[in-house]
Amino acid sequence: MFQNLSERLGQVLTRLTKRGALSASDVAEAMREVRVALLEADVALPVVKDFIDKVSAEAVGEKVIKSVTPGQMVVKIVHDALVEMLGGTAPAEGVDLAAPIPVAILMVGLQGSGKTTTTAKIANRLMTKNRKKVLLVSLDTYRPAAQEQLAILGRQVAVETLPIVSGQMPIDIAKRGLDEARKGGFDVVMFDTAGRTTVDDEMMAEVAALRDLIKPHEVLLVSDAMIGQDAVATAKAFNDRLAVTGIVLTRVDGDARGGAALSMRAVTGKPIKLIGVGEKVDALDVFDPSRIAGRILGMGDIVSLVERAAETVDKEEAERVALRMMEGQFDFNDMLSQIRQVQKMGDLKGLMGMIPGLSNALKQAKGLNVDDKVVKRQEAMILSMTPKERRNPDLIKASRKQRIATGSGMSVADVNKLLKQHADMSTMMKRIKKMGGPSAMGAMINRMGGLPGLQAPRGPGGPPMFRR
Asked: What is the C-alpha separation between 461 and 468, in angstroms, rounded?
């Protein structure tokens, strides 16, 4: 997410922070590079112009020029301007439910934007985080099996869907959905409307008629971040006709540019409320401008990381493994548990980007590979072991290595790497126990690369925590 923009801005701002003093020409040169970086990230031209004008005016002020650390002051100005561009410093809210029940939510957007999947994701979020009883209603009678798709997704997230009545028109389905939501005591009723390949008058007229009937508290526009400027144009068209209350950006995890996210608020005046960050049903985050700005500038987002860990990590299992590690007991069952805990938290590169300074360290460590496939390969090798081998890794010799390699589709060399990684972790845990237990944990972090999914480069290169 925002990878290209983050790298470009990082290079420009790092050069500024290394200088003891800044002149107006230094700032002007840096702003020219920032302008190009934003345009290459597909940010709308008027948005770029306003951003550069604002930052330039503040960055050449007396407060910055006379500052002890002028480069850091410019970084702060850029950060604050990014936050404002993305929506300001007000706390992220997500879906607004401050209305009489059943709260109606109308989902709109183009075909292929991920609207139906996002509808199920939001329903899952409202059910699990807000403890709301949700009813899903599909109004898409045009796309083949669209109603069945929502019903299947509803079953996957354990949310009720309105029974399908063949031949009914969207207006009739909406009336039946509202009636069922009232009778069934639902807190929220979500309407998934039909999409089109383009914004057309017929589509807008139908959605407007549904909006007038349903009178939704929220009209959420679902837009694909990957299509850049087209997403911004689509958002403006929908907002002009329907007065949307918020935007949900999908496929943000695959958008290295970030132009849609950076332009949406400025162009439409409507907040980005949620972002899709993966395919899983829980891969949906509240959009927080301050945190996103921090990620773009390589400052990390430790708050989101802690929140995600709290939501996904099995506390009791984590404590059990930690206790065994502190006692110097660490077998492949424990390692498998660690791997699965990390997998639950999501994409490894995304997680690394949330840790302040770590994303820059990864870039500087040439040859270092952060790959979710590595985690899956490690898991496959462990699952190819017998229960006895997992409990006692010392049993794994030549013939057993070959069997494990064959069973997991890997090589003996890969099995040897896994065994060495486990041995290194076990050795370090025993040293920590002798040194005083948890208080020595910092030493382990700087001396081992045991985090599943991290492959260190060969030789002495790379920061200490990634060396083998």
From this structure: 10
Q: pLDDT band at residue 231, thresholds of 50, 70 and 90?
A: confident
Q: Does residue 65 contact residue 26 with C-beta atoms inside 8 Å?
A: no
Q: Are residues 272 and 330 in the same domain?
A: no
- Counting Cβ atoms within 10 Å, is residue 244 exposed (0-12), middle (13-18) or buried (19+)? buried
pLDDT band at 348 (very low <50, low <70, confident <90, very high): low
What's the token pair of residue 83?
């936050």
Asked whether residue 318 is assigned to any structural domain, the reply reads yes
pLDDT grade for 180, boundaries at 50, 70 and 90: very high
Highest mean pLDDT range out of 32-36, 88-92, 266-270, 338-342? 32-36
Question: Could you give the CA distance from residue 458 to residue 453 in angstroms, rounded to a whole number?
Answer: 16
Q: 60, 86, 112 — which closes off a domain? A: 86
Over residues 408-459, the pLDDT tens digits come to 999 999 999 999 888 887 777 666 666 655 444 444 444 444 444 444 443 4
Q: Does 300 fall in a domain?
A: no
Segment 83-113, tens digit of pLDDT: 888 887 666 678 999 999 999 999 998 888 8
Predicted pLDDT of residue 136: 95
Q: With cut-offs at 50, 70 and 90, classify the pLDDT of residue 73.
A: confident
Within 13 Å, how many C-alpha atoms sit on residue 320's CB side?
12
Sign of CA dihedral 434, 436, 441, 442: negative
Q: Judge whether residue 304 has pLDDT over 60.
A: no
Domain limit, last residue, from 240, 259, 290: 290
Tokens of 180: 């069922």
Residue 283, SS3 per DSSP: coil
CATH code, domain carrying 249 = 3.40.50.300
Report in angstroms the alpha-carbon separations of 457 from 7, 9, 362, 462: 21, 26, 11, 7
Cβ contacts of 298 within 8 Å, gap of 6 or more: 6, 10, 357, 359, 360
My answer on whether 173 and 62 are in the same domain is no
The answer to whether residues 323 and 284 belong to one domain is: no
Q: Based on the fold, state whether residues 329 and 461 are members of the same structural domain.
A: yes
Q: Which domain holds residue 352?
A: 305-466
CATH number at residue 77: 1.20.120.140
Asked if 368 and 279 sit in the same domain, the reply is no
Lookup: tokens for 352: 């690394």
Tell the burial category of 434 from Cβ atoms under 10 Å away from its Cβ (0-12, 13-18, 19+). Answer: exposed
Residue 48 lies in a domain: yes
Q: Is residue 277 part of a domain?
A: yes
Q: Per the structure, how many domains does the chain have?
A: 3
